Amino acid sequence: MKTIIRTALLFGSLWLVACSESPATAFGDIVDDKAAEDARYSYERRSSSSYSDYDRCRLNGGTWDYYYDYCDYSYRSSSSYYSANYYYTTTQKTMRITTTSYRQTSYDWDVFDNAGDPEISYMVYFTKKDGTTSTSYTSSHFLGTDTRSYATEFRDDVTVPVNTIGFYIYPSVVDRDVSSNDDKSSGYGFGWSDVGYTKAGQLHTATDDKGGYSLSFNWQFL
Length: 222
Known about the structure:
The protein has 222 residues and is mostly beta strands. It has a single domain, classed as Immunoglobulin-like (Sandwich), CATH 2.60.40. It is built from two helices and 15 strands. Strands 1, 2, 6, 7, 8, 11, 12 and 13 form an eight-stranded antiparallel beta sheet that branches. β1 (4-10) and β2 form a beta hairpin. It starts with a strand and ends with a strand.
């Protein structure tokens, strides 16, 4: 794969990929080994009456710490915990994307004062366990004329299809001009795999700072 940067481990994996590669190819490279591992795990769990410590940890929603060799249940809460035994979504879900901050970091947006007129939106590219894909788009949010920074949060809700194993979120940043709009998007997508394990209310964050701006956002299942 040409450009894949592993940036953090969530409950599943956060990956950053360049848009020069197709999302389907990039995501397939990321999740193939993990999907195969979980398929084997699911079969072994159904076929055996005795579980290893690792299996019991995953069955009960824990995260296995390979370094210290123990099961971590610290993320769970009595109000939000439920058993999630599948790496794909078993029901249709609503995902909320919240933009938390925006800041222009380059000075080539405008010939007069170098301040842009940014408009923000997102494309979400879903992959199901059978390999089929779909795409959803959020609304566009105009942050204002000559806006170098913006700290007011805004939210968008997107429907996650059943049987989804992962997705990419691609931020779009457009400089709106009277004569023509300039696409300032970095071209990077932020991908998460094994999203079936994600609990409602768990926040997953990312920052797109590969273009002439820094855009921070998070997502969660409602």
